[in-house]
């Protein structure tokens, strides 16, 4: 196994605010599940992953999903090898924004960059207490997520934050630089 990365992949994470983008990246890079929500403006994470005997440095760029950052966010897209488009499985609005907002934005600024669709908060989708406490929530089904993925992106199994090992599978789908 090589001691230093022989390949670099820039992966930019996008999606509505509060869908779990930062949580997913923190879990993946530190094996810790954050308990406090702090809105992100921009942040960077890094992880070395071994894929087929090659060490890959995965540069994970975390972006703000809030509308206030619509003009600033695309500056992080330059040089991206892939996008992770995240939506919450317990937020119908974030799911609908895949087609309304995020795909048009990514296709406008980086039309040839592959997109991986990730559904977050899988644990809440089936949490009876959460659903009782949030009576308006209509969870996004697996079939709906797969349908969006088939028309827009590469699907990845949901809840990447708590089952962070699946994030490593992204490296297998991403092009080399």
Describe this protein's structure.
With 177 residues, the chain is an alpha/beta fold. It has one domain: Rossmann fold, CATH 3.40.50. The protein has 6 helices and 6 strands; from the N terminus they run βαβββαβαααβα. The chain has helices at residues 21-30, 92-109, 122-125, 128-133, 142-152, 169-173; strands spanning 7-14, 42-51, 54-63, 82-88, 115-120, 154-156. Strands 2-3-1-4-5-6 form a 6-stranded mixed β-sheet, with helices on both faces. β4, α2 (92-109) and β5 form a beta-alpha-beta unit. The longest helix is centred in the middle third of the chain and has 18 residues, at 92-109. The two termini are 20 Å apart. The relative contact order is 0.21. The model is unreliable at 156-177 (pLDDT under 50). One of its GO terms (molecular function) is GTPase activity.
The biggest sheet amounts to: 6 strands, mixed
Ends apart, CA distance between termini:
20 Å
CATH superfamily: P-loop containing nucleotide triphosphate hydrolases
Number of helices: 6
According to DSSP, the number of beta strands is 6
Order of strands across the main sheet: 2-3-1-4-5-6
Q: What ranges have pLDDT less than 50 throughout 5 or more consecutive residues?
A: 156-177
CATH level 1 name = Alpha Beta
Overall domain count: 1
Mean pLDDT: 83
What does the radius of gyration come to?
16 Å
CATH fold title: Rossmann fold
| Residue share in helix | 25-40%
Run of helices and strands: EHEEEHEHHHEH
What is the percentage of strand-forming residues? 15-25%
Q: Based on the structure given, which CATH architecture is correct?
A: 3-Layer(aba) Sandwich
Helix/strand-derived category reads alpha/beta
């Amino acid at each position: 196994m090589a001691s230093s990365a022989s390949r670099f992949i820039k992966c930019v994470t996008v999606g509505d605010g509060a869908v779990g983008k930062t949580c997913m990246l923190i879990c993946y890079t530190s094996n810790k599940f954050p308990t406090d929500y702090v809105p992100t403006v921009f942040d960077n994470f890094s992880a070395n992953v071994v894929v087929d005997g090659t060490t890959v440095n995965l540069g994970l760029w975390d972006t703000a999903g809030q509308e206030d950052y619509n003009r600033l966010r695309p500056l992080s897209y330059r040089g991206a090898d892939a996008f992770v488009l995240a939506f919450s499985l317990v937020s119908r609005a974030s799911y609908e924004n895949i087609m309304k907002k995020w795909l048009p934005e990514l296709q406008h600024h980086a039309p040839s960059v592959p997109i991986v669709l990730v559904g977050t908060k899988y644990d809440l989708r089936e949490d009876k207490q959460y659903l009782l406490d949030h009576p308006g929530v209509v969870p996004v089904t697996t079939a709906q997520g797969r349908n969006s993925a088939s028309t827009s992106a590469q699907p990845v199994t949901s809840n990447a934050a708590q089952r962070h090992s699946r994030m490593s599978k992204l490296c297998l789908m991403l092009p080399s630089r």
